[in-house]
Design a protein that fits this description.
alpha+beta, 2 domains, 21% strand, globular
Length: 248
């Protein structure tokens, strides 16, 4: 699905105009929003209430932090994006877009892949020195209570003139994360889910110390366990605990 599949010619002109006037495009998205400690995109613009999102790409951040050949010694030495460099902005704008389209998105584990039925459209490469890149992501989702499935079209632009450089076609689905599934079972009266959820809390505390140690507002695991044992479900605190990122 591309812009001209869902917007009229006039709407497309309005879309590009609004994107050009978007004042926050050069401010970085928060790590929580992009699920990464190194955001490579600016604040994400959404066109009206449509599932159409766009963001500036900080190409120097990619060059200096993500070297697929020598990760211990950046920057990346070549003139053009490596294949993996295209995936970082796709994934990051995907997290932001999905969280806006689905309020409880943080409860899902998303699996995605390139659509093998539609080939990539690679008109031009992104050049680290010459290109002024931005990325657009258009979603076509089907949503159930505990599932997400759908497709997305990622388009890379030369932002100075809105010239399309590349178009990637993606498919994916999302199921509830294991801890979120336990919460849903608890809500339905499944008492066995209490012990399963407590075990997941304890395992996460032991195995994720490196990541959890970077968190600033991590809920106390003993508080969460005690609440579950007395019959309460501290749902928001549990979502916070099982997140890898601080919200603020």
């Amino acid at each position: 699905m591309k812009l001209n599949d869902i917007l009229s010619k006039g709407e497309i002109e309005n879309y590009h105009q609004q994107w050009g006037l978007f004042s926050q495009k050069y401010s970085r998205e928060a790590p929580y929003n992009v699920h990464s400690f190194i955001p490579v995109i600016g604040k994400v613009f959404q066109f009206e209430d449509r599932p159409i999102f766009r963001a500036h790409i900080f190409k120097k951040t990619i060059k200096y932090h993500f070297n697929p050949y020598d990760p211990e010694n950046p920057p990346y030495q070549h003139a053009n994006f490596h294949l993996t460099h295209y995936l970082y902005p796709i994934e990051q704008i995907g997290h932001v877009g999905l969280s806006r389209l689905r309020e409880d998105y943080n409860k899902f584990l998303i699996t995605e892949w390139l659509n093998n039925k539609i080939p990539l459209e690679t008109k031009e490469k992104i050049h680290f020195d010459k290109t002024h890149p931005s990325i657009e992501l258009i979603f076509d989702l089907k949503q159930g209570k505990n599932k997400i499935a759908g497709k997305a079209t990622a388009t890379f632009y030369e932002d100075s003139d809105n010239r399309i450089l590349q178009t990637w076609y993606i498919e994916g689905f999302g199921n509830l994360r294991n801890y979120a599934n336990c919460i849903e079972r608890l809500k339905q009266g499944d008492k066995e889910a209490i012990n399963e959820l407590i075990k997941k809390i304890e395992v996460r505390s032991k195995k994720r110390k490196d990541i959890l140690g970077l968190r600033r507002n991590l809920p106390d695991k003993d508080y969460l366990i005690n609440q579950l044992r007395i019959g309460n479900i501290p749902e928001e605190e549990l979502h916070n605990y099982f997140s890898d990122w601080d919200k603020f």
